[in-house]
Amino acid sequence: MKLIKLSTALAAACLFASPLAFADEHRSGNERHSGNEHHSGNEHHSGNEHHSGNGNNNESEIKAYPIVIDPTFDVAGKGEYQARRGREKFEARLQVNLPNSVLGIIDSNDARLASVTLELSDPSGATYAECSLDLKRFRSNKAKYEVEIRKTTQGRTYERRGYCDVDLAATGIQSGVPVPSIGDYLTLLVDGEPVTEGTFQ
Question: How far apart are CA 94 and CA 79, in angstroms?
């Protein structure tokens, strides 16, 4: 009878001790996974330390609707950054209404020769990225320019239209996806002349 009682007591002790031991092991296992630096904010893909806070694992979307600097320019622009499910995308567009004698864009030949670019700068005014927009579409009454850069979940960057230099301090063009933050500025230029500017929100 004493042997039976001792066995019962040992079994009860094991029953109540096991969940606690498993919980400790489970917690330590989670700590090992959460400490994986590769997934906690990959600085290699941020391009700019000041703008790496969005990260590849966070979902975010910010936009800028620039205001025309001078109404006689007769243009409209837009910029947008998205991070979703490990993918990133930056795009910006500029529509120039034609004929546009102020900007010197009258016909299709003028539209192809025009240099349309953009600058991204932080609230202090420091420019951290520059992009070149391609002519996407031309019609008799408008010319549309666009840059679209994407990054896959594997970290591969590809330029669907135009290109962006995300490290202006380095020699040559450092292609990548610009990562603007809320409060940063977007300026669109035609042949070096700023035509619209706005703030990301």
Answer: 9
CA atoms within 13 A on the CB side of 171: 0
Q: Which residues contact 94 (CB under 8 A, 6 or more apart)?
A: 75, 76, 77, 116, 118, 133, 144, 145, 146, 188, 190, 195, 196
Beta strands in 8-115 (DSSP E): 60-64, 67-68, 75-84, 87-97
Structure tokens given for 20: 């606690």
pLDDT in tens, 144-158: 999 999 999 999 999
pLDDT of 138: 96
CA 105 remoteness from chain centre: 31
Residue 55 has pLDDT above 90, yes or no: no
Amino acid, single-letter form, for residue 65 = Y
